[in-house]
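Example record for the data management plan.
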Amino acid sequence: MPEDGDDPQIFGRKRQSHSWRSPMRIGTILLAVATILAAPVLVHAEAVKPPVVSTVILSASPRIVRWATVYKLPDPADHDPYYHVEVIEKERHTPPWQFKRLAAHMVVTADALDRSRQRQKVRTYFYKDIEFRGSYRAWRAQPLRQREAGVCRTTILECIGAAGTIAP
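Corresponding structural encoding:
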């Protein structure tokens, strides 16, 4: 039986000198595939902006920590001079997924946010903002008069009624 390299015909077909396996053709195919796969990734990376999120410690005791996660800053272009926060309470020494959401969305003035801020350093966690986004959209849909009525102007804990519930 003749060897593969000796027989010009294999399985009844004539051997072609230029096959799809040539290095140039493989390089062209790989380049095309890489271009197709990379293009959506590059477009997606440019379109996504990281959210500006910060944390303000509201109170910290040996047992409980409360903080506000600031999701939206004042935006004069959008006629919104307020901070928009979510308020979280968590017992220390419990797993991160055990927490209480005191307010999914709260509208706060800059002065109220500053008065609410404690200078302590404590560990906080960042939770998904699904509830915040839904509540924020509902707030935006309200008439301006209703939106203004719900703005916190004292401290965050006073506004949610939790100021006197933990020991210093």
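Summary line stored alongside the record: The longest strand covers residues 64-72.
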